[in-house]
Amino acid sequence: VDLAAVDERVSGCRACPRLVAWREEVAVVKRAAFRDQVYWGRPVHGMGPADARIGVVGLAPAAHGGNRTGRIFTGDRSGDWIFAALWRAGLANQPTSVSIDDGLELTDCRIVAAVRCAPPDNAPTPAERDTCSPWLARELELLPRLRVLVVLGGFGWSALLPVLARAGVEIPRPKPRFGHGAEVTLAGPGGPLTVLGSYHVSQQNTFTGRLTEPMLDAVLTRAVELAGG
Ligand code: SF4
Hints:
The chain is of the alpha/beta class. It has helices at 3-10, 17-29, 66-69, 77-88, 126-141, 154-166, 203-206, 213-227; strands at 54-58, 109-113, 148-152, 183-188, 191-198. Helix content is 37%, strand content 13%. A five-stranded mixed β-sheet has the order 2-1-3-5-4, sandwiched between helices. The two termini are 29 Å apart.
């Protein structure tokens, strides 16, 4: 089984009734600005090569972003932020991400969501997070060179730690706390793995200045440094 097979498989997942209903309803009702487009309306898998040393873990697709375009973080303001930052860090070949055929490619980086279906109000429940966690686990297992994980927001942090623990990564007690700039290096079966925290690139954070471009750049620069330059 490779990443492409997992990507294909997750696209058909219907395990969370509330999220299945929402992603499909949004795809029919649409936003006025996109009414001529065919929405994806299904789970959104990760993006980036299998030899990535850096993983970025987000929250969930946006109703009119990834749930519309079919590509993670593509077609919304959060995506504008993260892909521009990945480009500045040398991990993307272009700073914008508007549609699945816009030519965007990532290098040494795989970006995934903790929950793969768009939730109402961008808020999955803890039960939905846990139901989706085997997909996250499977995807991380298939990244053998992974050395650094950048987690965007506390929700992704809470989703990731149990997944890592089940994969044999030693999680200290008390559990490492999420924060912007948090950094913890864990002992994993395949060697050390560093987890970095960043505030999420949501408009709530970027419009208010809680997260600035230099703050995000600092975390990604650190990730590149830890991954080996
Ligand atoms: Fe499946 Fe995850 Fe979507 Fe739930 S959120 S339906 S587990 S892909």
